[in-house]
Specification:
One of its GO terms (molecular function) is adenylate cyclase activity. The chain is 64% helix and 4% strand. It is mainly alpha-helical. Among the domains are: 176 residues, P-loop containing nucleotide triphosphate hydrolases (Rossmann fold, 3-Layer(aba) Sandwich); 88 residues, Arc Repressor Mutant, subunit A, CATH 1.10.10; 79 residues; 63 residues, Winged helix-like DNA-binding domain superfamily/Winged helix DNA-binding domain (Arc Repressor Mutant, subunit A, Orthogonal Bundle). The strands form 2 sheets. The chain has a 5-stranded parallel beta sheet, sandwiched between helices. Strands 6-7 form a two-stranded antiparallel ribbon.
Length: 900
């Protein structure tokens, strides 16, 4: 197609492919069918080739969207030999995904990391241009891998150009690619294009074609051939074009039409398969020459082994131009010649089916199993859903729909999962099926957007399922209900109901799932028994990362933030190693939240950033909100007030609409810390008071025990002593029923500050605080301030000095400056702290530094952080000058200084 009016777009793409070494993710070229996306990309490819780039291409086909990793196979096939040098887990996952080796089900993130590593290695030899066309038709697994790669190539000599139809969904929309929207050609340019392809038109015909094409380049080049047919101008342009192509098709001789129909229905474009199936239909041997009239009609191009349709609209127009029975006959013929390819055969048989067909349904079910084994969850969902449609038996139909929904949950397809569960529930289900349907959707946002009456329904369902002798499904349902008690507040009655059901399950008390359920549902009533189990299980950390994740969450609920940090830190490496990026941000968010409460900002900064990144990437909005709120709290503690406010606002937007209480509570905490640091104590008290008001959406039953000291701090300065005493009295009553460490630490601080005395301060400092450095520093600061006000300046200095040193070591800048001011008022000079690595590095860079200091190689760091090892090397090259070091060995001293 001639390129008229696309000079600006071509210039932008040429500049992009001219400078990939500078690092650029690439561009997503968008537009309606026929707008010229492929033509523009072809020019970019030509420019890249001239510029010395290697080009790797993949073009998605609608009929292949149910075949997992089909597009990735096409893209990586020319460089597949390089996979032999990949780390074993990546190599195994990639070979399994591409169907080139038998192995366990490949983890999709390992496949993504393998593709990233392979492409990075190739780009190190010669810069790469990756072209992915028609990604709206790409199988979901391949699209996810390309999005994974796109997010991580900003430092690589790689450029990705993808084409996408307007309005179509794709993971690549959220992959950090810049957008290039191709508009219709302006009138004068459209006229120039039409005149170049059809110079002899009469004025009336020319005017009509310009009006009908409306600036669409494909229409301008293809409609002139159908000018005598006077297309209906009322029809949408795409339909007019399809009619034009359909008319060319119907004008062909019958044997050619049959062969061309088979080609349109054959997803691979294989000429051999097309001719074999056409021969089956026609009862005679069909040769490649049979397609010559279709080439002359400009519907297809032929290569020795492949049939190419000149435009996807040409391909779609052909089946629409023949009766349904003719299409079914063609599908049956393709199925017949695909006996050695059971997955493709099953789909062709399904397309040929006229009603329920259990044999084909079983074939599709087997195809789903094979797709799942290759890591193709989206492909498995599609096969199971189609199998359900062909199922005559209602129970089998429901089973297949629920299995498909389970696969959709695993792949993050919320809308698909909800639709499948809804379809399953449309008919009578067995108790087991009802249980499965109920717990399946709990993985999405932990039920935050559901009506709270749902908690009671789930409790009753769990009880009935357990009574039928199915404790594991019952536990899954109960866990889904318990999670709702964290994000929302179902009320005391619902909590009691859940606890009664949990107590009745035939499960050991030490079962981590039961421990976590008890912690979520009854964080105070069961705190003593939960803490006992947690302390006993602490010796087993690292054995099972999912168990550690459960226990980390449970610890957070019962005020044992030190244990929460320990369990969640133990969970993260195992989840990374298993490639479970859906669960990883949950463990990371708990770890970051806990480390901040303990004052370990050096550890919390990179963990919170990574939690936010992976939560966003895996479509977990409330985990993203929680991790972002933790980042806001960190910024507030470091005195970065502008950044804290921006992060708090972003987190609040995520959590407010659905009332995600932990997100909103952490947001208010960050705002209170910022207001206090700025001397706005009335505002700080108003922010933190909300955390103790059951009517406020920021009230979170379990987490409020962590905020007693923070509230006390600002209430005294805001002159809200009586209001504080009321809250402390309420928390004192609560403390009688729970040993929650965070609550008792906070109350000891509140007692000492409300009625200060040496005895109360010494009692608070004498408590077990070895794992709580921030709380110890807070106590020393408050004690020192009180001593100075009592004119005991000499006595105050030791406490103020300890507080300053503690907060400096923890990176709590706002608190450290407060200790400095107090120390100067007590008559001791206190120099300002110089900047350290925390101030010089981004959270991402800090993660890399910490891992490098542990002795990990670039490749090992890349596997941990899901980056290519070359990207890690690039980051370290930039980091060394920032820190004033010249070797990895010196990084140990940098990280050691952060821990002091």
């Amino acid at each position: 197609m001639p390129l008229f009016g696309r000079e600006a777009e071509l210039k932008d793409l040429s500049e992009l492919v001219d400078g990939p070494a500078d690092g650029c993710a690439g561009v997503l070229v968008q537009g309606e069918p026929g707008i010229g996306k492929s033509a523009v990309v072809a020019e970019a490819v030509a420019a890249a080739t001239v510029g010395g780039l290697r080009v790797l291409r993949t073009t998605a086909v609608e009929a292949e969207r149910n075949f997992a990793y089909a597009a990735l196979h096409q893209l990586l096939h020319p460089v597949r030999a390089g996979a032999d040098t990949l780390p074993a887990p990546q190599r195994s996952a990639l070979w399994a995904a591409l169907g080139l080796a038998e192995s366990a089900e490949p983890n999709p993130y390992f496949v993504g990391l393998a593709a990233l590593t392979l492409l990075s290695e190739e780009a190190a030899v010669k810069p790469l241009l990756i072209v992915a066309e028609d990604v709206h038709w790409m199988d979901r697994e391949s699209a996810d891998v390309l999005a994974f790669v796109a997010r991580r190539i900003d430092t690589e000599p790689i450029v990705l150009i993808a084409t996408l139809r307007d309005g179509e969904p794709s993971p690549l929309r959220d992959a950090g690619l810049s957008s290039m929207d191709l508009e219709r050609l302006p009138g004068d340019v459209a006229a120039e294009l039409l005149d170049s392809v059809a110079p002899g038109l009469t004025s009336p015909v020319r005017s009509r074609l310009l009006a009908e094409a409306a600036g669409n380049p494909l229409a301008l080049t293809e409609l002139p051939s159908a000018v005598t047919e006077a297309p209906d101008p009322v029809l949408p342009l795409t339909e007019r074009l399809e009619r034009t192509f359909g008319a060319r098709f119907t004008a062909l001789p019958e044997p050619v039409r049959t062969t061309l129909l088979v080609a349109a229905l054959n997803e691979t474009g294989s000429l051999t398969e097309t001719l074999a199936a056409a021969s089956e239909l026609l009862g005679e041997d069909v040769q490649p020459s049979a397609l010559a009239p279709a080439v002359e009609a400009r519907l297809i191009d032929l290569e020795p082994r492949t049939v190419f349709f000149r435009h996807p609209l040409m391909r779609s127009a052909i089946p629409a131009s023949v009766p349904l029975e003719d299409r079914r006959r063609a599908h049956r013929a393709l199925a017949e010649i695909l006996r050695e390819q059971p997955d493709r055969r099953a789909w062709q048989q399904a397309a040929a089916a006229t009603g329920a067909d259990e044999e084909v349904a079983r074939a599709l079910e087997n195809a789903a199993d094979r797709a799942r084994h290759r890591g193709g969850t989206a492909a498995a969902v599609a096969a199971l859903e189609q199998a359900a449609r062909l199922s005559a038996d209602p129970e089998r139909r429901a089973d297949r729909l629920l299995r498909a929904a389970e696969q959709a949950v695993e792949s993050g397809g919320r809308e698909t999962a909800e639709r499948l569960v809804r379809d399953a529930r449309a008919r009578e289900l067995t108790p087991r099926q009802r249980s499965t349907a109920s717990w399946l959707l709990s993985g999405f946002e932990d039920g935050v957007r559901e009506d709270l009456s749902r908690v009671g329904e789930l409790a009753r369902l769990a009880e009935s399922v357990a009574e039928e002798g199915q404790p594991d499904p019952a536990m899954r349902v109960l866990w889904g209900a318990a999670m709702r008690c964290f994000w929302a507040e179902p009320g005391a009655e619902a909590r009691r109901t859940l606890l009664a059901v949990a107590d009745g399950l035939p499960v050991e008390n030490s079962d981590p799932r039961l421990v976590a359920v008890a912690a979520y549902v009854a964080p105070f009533e069961r705190a003593e028994s939960v803490l006992g189990e947690l302390r006993g299980l602490a010796a087993t950390t690292g054995a099972d990362p999912e168990v550690d994740r459960f226990l980390g969450s449970a610890s957070l609920q019962v005020g044992a933030v030190d244990l929460a940090a320990r369990f969640s830190a133990a969970a993260a490496p195992g989840l990374r190693a298993q490639g479970r990026l859906g669960l990883l941000p949950r463990a990371l968010a708990v770890q970051a939240w806990s480390r901040v409460r303990l004052g370990d900002l050096a550890a919390a900064v990179p963990v919170a950033a990574e939690a936010a990144k992976f939560a966003k990437e895996t479509g977990q909005p409330f985990m993203y909100g929680l991790a972002t709120a933790v980042q806001a709290e960190i910024a507030a503690l470091r005195g970065e007030h502008k950044q804290s406010k921006a992060l708090a606002d972003e987190a609040e937007r995520t959590g407010l609409a659905a009332g995600a209480r932990p997100v909103l509570a952490t947001v208010q905490l960050a705002r209170g810390i910022t207001a206090s640091s700025e001397g706005r104590f009335d505002d700080a008290f108003a922010d933190l008071r909300r955390l103790f008001d059951p009517a406020d959406p920021a009230f979170q039953l379990a987490l409020r025990v962590y905020f007693v000291a923070d509230l006390t701090e600002v209430a005294i300065r805001a002159g809200q002593v009586e209001a504080l005493r009321e809250i402390v009295a309420e928390m004192e009553k609560l403390a009688l029923s729970t040993p929650a460490p965070a609550l008792h630490i906070g109350l000891r601080y509140a007692r000492a500050v409300l009625d200060p005395s040496d005895e109360l301060f010494e009692t608070a400092l004498g408590a077990e605080l070895d794992g709580w450095p921030a709380e110890r520093g807070r106590l020393h600061l408050a004690y020192g301030e009180w001593l100075r006000r009592q004119r005991r300046a000499v006595d105050s200095r030791a406490h103020l000095r300890t507080a300053r040193e503690t907060f400096d070591a923890l990176g709590m800048t706002a608190w450290a400056e407060r200790a400095r001011r107090e120390l100067r008022s007590a008559g001791e000079s206190s120099p300002n702290r110089g900047p350290d690595a925390r101030d010089k590095l981004t959270p991402h860079e800090l993660s890399i530094v910490q891992l490098a200091a542990e002795g990990l190689t670039n490749r090992e760091i890349g596997q941990r952080l899901y980056l290519s090892h070359r990207t890690v090397g690039t980051h370290l090259h930039r980091i060394f000058p920032k820190l004033g070091v010249s070797s990895r060995a010196e990084l140990k001293d940098v990280v050691s200084d952060l821990g002091r």
